[in-house]
Amino acid sequence: MRLTKLGHACWRLQKDGSTLVIDPGSFSGEGLLDEASAVLITHEHFDHVDAELLRKAAPDLEIFTCRSVADQLGEIPAKIQVVRDGDAFTTAGFGVKVVGEWHALNHPDVPVVQNVGFLVDEEVFYPGDAFTPPGVEVPTLLVPTNAPWMKTTDMVAYLREVRPQRAYSTHDGLLNEVGLKVVDNWIGMEADRQKADFRRIPVGESVEVP
Asked: Domain for residue 128, yes or no?
């Protein structure tokens, strides 16, 4: 499987000629849905879902997401399917399991929204905006590294809890070059400690996973 970082919190997964996109939000650049047969959306925040982009999507595009996102998208040409914690399905040749229910706390005065994570092909886990325990072995983790709802110790604790073979930085689009170097340093230190492949994939670049 090939993983490509499209920007901020958006990833393209490809195998056997099929393309799956996770969280095509408004911070993630252009061409997010190119070649996509299916889209997974973790939650309703605009840096993870661009409603206008999806309203222009092809009618045969499949979108899997939580109820709150489906309600916000309303009637669009693409096919929306609501999923929840514990669900499993196949789309575009990928097997997907749904893990988690809620976004991490952003602010004491802001209500917590729905958030579902996705485990793809028993290989890649993307928790969305949360540090949800996957409950199973995860070979490849897309780990949040910067957000208003987290601190570095949260990221490190999550990496130590999940202990993946590989972990790649996501949710890092709010950082300038200085901040990205800090992420590289912290995630690199944990990679050395666990003797694993933990790093940041630059926007537009790809990595192959088994």
From this structure: yes
